[in-house]
Amino acid sequence: MARDFYDILGVSKDASADDLKKAYRRLAMKHHPDRNPDDAEAQDKFKEAKEAYEVLKDPKKRGLYDQYGAEAVRGGGAGGPQGFGGDFGDIFGDIFGDIFGGARGRGGQARNRGSDLRMAIELDLKEAVYGVEKEVRVPSLSACDTCNGSGSASGRLETCGTCGGAGQVRMQQGIFSVQQTCPRCRGAGQSVADPCKTCNGQGRVQETRTLSVKIPPGVDSGDRIRLAGKGEAGARGGATGDLYVEIRVLPHALFERDGDNLHCEIPIPFTTAALGGEIKVPTLEGSVMLKIPSETQSGKQFKLRGKGVSSVRSNSTGDLLCRVHLETPVRLNGEQKELLRQFQDTFDSGTTDHNPRSRSWMDNVRDFFERVTS
């Protein structure tokens, strides 16, 4: 039995349009194929969420769904929710569109549209956490300045004589009529009578542009930012493609990132672990004092709330998780060694009261050998 669309999005049946949008964006981010390239289950969940949102965001389709169920809105029409494989790249473009210049139009594919470009940008951890503005050099095809991208030296374009300006020609094959892109103007509908010498009539030239990219706080490796209209220029005045910037966060010497949380390993002397005390630990905002209780064991983890990363997708902030490791002292002199021997002698002979983990381990060893020999 098919799942209920409201259950898929995790909203109530009286959810507002804004609630639907927020729920869908959250699921799209979580299960997006770009973030889960080898996870078939995640991709299925992404398609499922997309289908549910496409229906429920449309008041007419939502009304039909509420009254008759999913079959009433799973028609084969051009505007229906049948082909939900979708353009995966647009999801991130929608979410970051307000920050980086708006979203691309959803109309039909523009004639001679320029290609989308993709590039990676490396950030250190602080840049990823707090956001940064980076300049990038992008080699691409740009509109020719000589002819203003028209491809014509005089700026005049003639209607293509082959397709009559339609950009498409109809070929008759027996009883079938096939429509295809015009071979002369390549879908432009116009031809250049006097080609520009700078671009040879193409309307664009190869050049390297320097762009400024605003990176929002909280991005992580694998996130993509779409800069609408910053890709290759279209041929002969065609629409410009988009530029996709993929984030790669470099490893840090102290911190390891896990989503919005940070992990840090901290060595402490065994005296501090045994007696307790305070140690200074680093955070992204500076050092803080961490209280170590007495009898702390190696591997104990302490959580510093709110000292992690502020999420790029919500108002939440992660934590800093500090794992302590006891450090054995080295290069001891004679006096220090003797003091340690005297310290060891203070323990009752044969007792394990001071070493609870050793006692538990020895019990497990004894049980193991008893099972083997029985």
Beta content comes to: 25-35%
Rg (CA only): 32 Å
Structural class: alpha+beta
Give the rounded overall mean pLDDT. 81
Shape type = elongated
Portion of residues within helices: 25-40%
Q: Which spans have pLDDT < 50 for at least 5 consecutive residues? A: 76-110
CATH class of the domain at 1-86: Mainly Alpha
The ordered string of helix (H) and strand (E) elements is HHHHHEHEEEEEEEEEEHEEEEHH
Largest sheet: 4 strands, mixed
User: Strands of the largest sheet, in order across it?
Assistant: 10-11-15-14
Outline:
With 374 residues, this protein is of the alpha+beta class. Helices cover 26% and strands 26% of the residues.
What's the structural blueprint in terms of helices and strands?
Layout: H1 5-9, H2 17-31, H3 40-56, H4 59-68, H5 89-96, E1 117-123, H6 125-130, E2 132-143, E3 158-159, E4 168-173, E5 176-181, E6 190-191, E7 204-215, E8 224-227, E9 243-249, E10 256-258, E11 261-269, H7 270-275, E12 277-283, E13 286-292, E14 301-304, E15 320-327, H8 334-345, H9 356-373
Parallel strand pairs: 1-9, 11-15
Antiparallel strand pairs: 2-7, 3-6, 4-5, 8-9, 10-11, 12-13, 14-15
Helix pairs in contact: 2-3
